[in-house]
Write a structure and sequence with these properties.
By secondary structure, this protein is mainly alpha-helical. It has two domains: about 5-95, Orthogonal Bundle (Arc Repressor Mutant, subunit A); about 105-205, no CATH class. It has helices at about 5-20, 25-35, 45-55, 80-95, 105-110, 115-145, 155-180, 190-210; strands spanning about 60-65, 75-80. The chain is elongated, with a radius of gyration of 24 Å. The model has no long low-confidence stretch (mean pLDDT about 90).
Length: about 210
């Protein structure tokens, strides 16, 4: 791949490197394996990724089939170039240094502008949703491990379990402090902080002046 591969492109290429599939089968396999929690994917995104991979010479069409009254479906497989590109693409994602930019931190950074009840309600909803995700993911991992799937195949799930557990615990702490007013919610930053920041910025400007 001449440019940085997207996450969707990598997972699609990986499935086509396993065996020939048509794009909708790729999507169904992603959902069945739970990989739709790793990337935001829908059938359209899969078809787009396959088109891009085909343009880059990394996959090729190997046949077309029709089942009943359904539209024709083209089956694709990874080319030798696609097989060769897969390992570097996976390595690039393992060592990725680009910061993740999810929406939640933006909300946290500006939450102080909202009434405390609104913040608590939003965080409580997030906490309950993440707890449900945690239970579902733990059950799924326990199920496939119980069927004999080696741990190396679920490292991504293990990492997500750790992150979800930590986030839920943190949310519980914040919600408790919002409830008992430990966070002293409301109002802009205190005057002492603003004065200290102004002095620091002034000192920085003085040092940077030639």
């Amino acid at each position: 791949m001449s440019r940085t591969p997207t996450a969707v492109t990598v997972v699609v290429l990986a499935l086509l490197a396993e065996q020939p599939r048509h794009p909708y089968d790729v999507f169904q396999t992603l959902v069945e394996r739970g990989d739709d929690r790793l990337v935001r994917v829908n059938p359209g995104a899969v078809y787009h990724a396959v088109d891009r991979l085909e343009r880059d010479g990394l996959v090729e069409a190997v046949g077309t089939e029709r089942a009943g009254n359904r539209p024709e479906r083209t089956t694709y497989r990874a080319t030798p170039a696609g097989h060769a590109a897969l390992a570097p693409a996976i390595t690039a994602h393992l060592a990725d240094e680009r910061p993740a930019l999810p929406d939640f931190p933006v909300g946290l950074a500006h939450a102080w502008r909202l009434p405390v009840d609104d913040v608590a309600a939003a965080l409580r909803a997030r906490r309950d949703r993440e707890a449900a995700r945690l239970a579902e993911l733990r059950a799924r991992i326990d199920a496939v491990r119980g069927e004999g799937l080696p741990r190396r195949f679920v490292l991504d799930g293990e990492r997500e379990l750790v992150l979800l557990t930590a986030e839920i615990a943190w949310l519980d702490d914040v919600l408790r402090e919002l409830a008992d007013d430990t966070l002293e919610w409301g109002g802009p930053p205190p005057p002492d902080f603003l004065a200290a920041r102004a002095r620091r910025l002034a000192a920085t400007d003085t040092r940077s002046t030639p």
